[in-house]
TrEMBL record:
The keyword Transmembrane does not apply. Residues 71-253 form the IclR-ED domain. SMART domains: HTH_ICLR. It comes from the Bacteria. Residues 10-70 form the HTH iclR-type domain. This is IclR family transcriptional regulator.
């Protein structure tokens, strides 16, 4: 008679995972919300949050709520470094910027931010100080706007509700502008970041789609404004869009 394998479980770890999943799903949560929504005793919640915070898996914000920390991003980065998307995209990035002064980036969406997971530099003299793991606001980056094109208007508005230090009126204005940018991306297939992040630097991005048609990543080229004049936005945008669509095809996406 063959004995069935025992299903071992550590209750404290199970609760910690439940809390991390809850924060990930809701964006941010406080102790009372975790207690009531996840049905975990407050004393247990407090101990687990303290432990997770010490290991940078969560961070406490000024309003007392917790969000995912950069320790989770570190795990995610290690995963994505081994995943198909980076391996598939790399040769396309190389081809996109070959013989140009542009720098190409690959990014994914993490906690309502665009996070670089790969970078390839062209032949320009200027080297941009961007690194894998760097997080950028959606509304201030070419990759971020492209990623936002896969979000609903409600999700975009919600993403700004988590922005600390910005009043409600300003958050609403930023959300409206990003929604406007997203409509442009859906119509034209590429995003434009025109010196919004940093004066003298421009980016053009495009979304990468998965097999189910959802946006799973984005790419962009970054350049000095003198190397990327506005008159070239459309031509370069088409190149970035077509590159992203070729990557999407290799990821199982079928053009409509």
């Amino acid at each position: 008679m063959v004995k069935s394998a025992k299903n071992y479980s550590v209750p404290a770890i199970e609760k910690a995972i439940t809390i991390l999943n809850g924060i990930s799903k809701n964006g941010k949560m406080n102790i009372n919300e975790i207690h009531s929504e996840l049905n975990i005793p407050k004393t247990t919640v407090f101990v687990i949050l303290n432990t997770l915070e010490r290991h940078s898996l969560i961070e406490k914000q000024d309003d007392g709520k917790y969000v995912l920390g950069h320790g989770v991003l570190y795990w995610g980065m290690n995963y994505y470094q081994q995943s198909d998307i980076k391996q598939v995209t790399r040769p396309h990035l190389e081809k996109l910027v070959a013989g140009t002064p542009f720098t190409a980036h690959l990014a994914i969406l993490v906690n309502y931010q665009a996070v670089y997971i790969d970078k390839f530099e062209g032949n320009g003299f200027v080297r941009f100080a961007t690194i894998a793991g760097q997080a950028l606001p959606l509304h201030l980056s070419g990759v971020g706007k492209a990623l936002a094109s896969g979000m609903t208007d409600e999700e975009i508005t919600q993403s700004f509700s988590k922005m600390p230090g910005v009043d409600e009126t300003k958050r609403g204005q930023l959300a409206d502008k990003l929604i406007e940018d997203v409509h442009f991306i859906r119509e034209h297939g590429y995003s434009i970041e025109d010196e919004q992040m940093e004066e003298g630097i421009r980016c053009i991005g495009a979304p990468i789609f998965g097999e189910n048609g959802h946006v799973i990543a984005s790419i962009s080229i970054t350049a000095l404004s003198k190397d990327l004049p506005a008159i070239k936005f459309h031509a370069i945008g088409e190149q970035v869009k077509e590159t992203a669509l070729r990557v999407s095809g290799e990821m199982g996406y079928q053009r409509r």
